[in-house]
Amino acid sequence: MFERKILAALFTTALVLGGCAWDSGYQRSAGPMLSRDGVEVRVLGQECYVNRCADEMVRFEGDQLDIKVMLQLSNGTDSDLSVYPQEITLLDSEVEGGPSLQSHPAASFNLAPGTSKRFSVAFTRGGEFDCSAQLALRLGRSVTVQGSPLAMPVLNLASSH
Question: For 64, how many CA atoms within 13 A lie in the half-sphere containing its CB?
Answer without folding.
Answer: 5
